[in-house]
Amino acid sequence: MPTGARPIPGPLSHEVARILRTAMNDQGRQLKDVAKTADISASQLSRVFNGLKVFTLDQLDAVCAALDLSTAMVIAKADAATADRPLPRIAPLPTIPRIGVIGFNVGAHDEDQALAASDDADWQARQEHENE
Predict the structure, then answer these.
(1) Cβ distance 67 to 20 under 8 Å?
(2) Within its chain, how far is the Cα of 121 from the centroid?
(3) Of the four listed, 2, 33, 55, 75, which is most buried by Cβ atoms within 10 Å?
(4) Residue 1's pLDDT band (boundaries 50, 70, 90)?
(5) DSSP string, 67-128
(6) What are the CA-CA distances from residue 115 to residues 11, 75, 97, 124, 129 (Å)?
(7) C-beta of residue 23 within 8 angstroms of C-beta of residue 67
(8) Calpha distance 64→43 (Å, rounded)
(9) What is the mean pLDDT of residues 30-40?
């Protein structure tokens, strides 16, 4: 349920805005042109670039497309540039029950956790083998 509070832009949001602003300037584009192409208001884009507003994922994707940038690459660059930022505490992902032939397996939770643990162990073993 929404709290009504607006998210405060953090280091990652500021870095994303810096990357996009730099790309826009390097391309010789105007903010109002990029905003129009991305189908968002120039004032919204300006607020993001000035660190007053956080992009929604759809807005970020639209602005990246307007600048002919990969959204994933922009996020990856911003993430790498702000790697020392404090990370929020993240709750574990919920376990999704497996669907059996007839329906949901009632006791699937323990089985899923065991499978996830073995998948993690397999992944770690593959990583160690690749790094040798």
Answers:
(1) yes
(2) 26
(3) 55
(4) very low
(5) TT--HHHHHHHHHHHTTTSPPPP-PPPPPPPPB-SSSB-TTHHHHHHHHHHHHHHHHHHHHH
(6) 36, 31, 12, 14, 21
(7) yes
(8) 17
(9) 96
Q: In which band, very low, low, confident or very high, does the pLDDT at 6 lie, cut at 50, 70 and 90? A: confident
Comparing C-alpha atoms, which of 62, 3, 17 is closest to residue 37? 62
Position 104: which residue type?
F
* C-alpha distances in Å from residue 66, one per residue of 20, 60, 61, 72: 10, 10, 9, 14
Bridge partners, residue 99, by sequence: 104
* Res. 59: pLDDT tops 70: yes
Please give the mean pLDDT across all residues of the chain: 80
8 Å CB contact between 60 and 39: no
Sign of torsion over alpha carbons 36, 39, 43, 48: negative
In contact, 96 and 113? CB cutoff 8 Å: no
- Cβ–Cβ < 8 Å for 21, 83: no
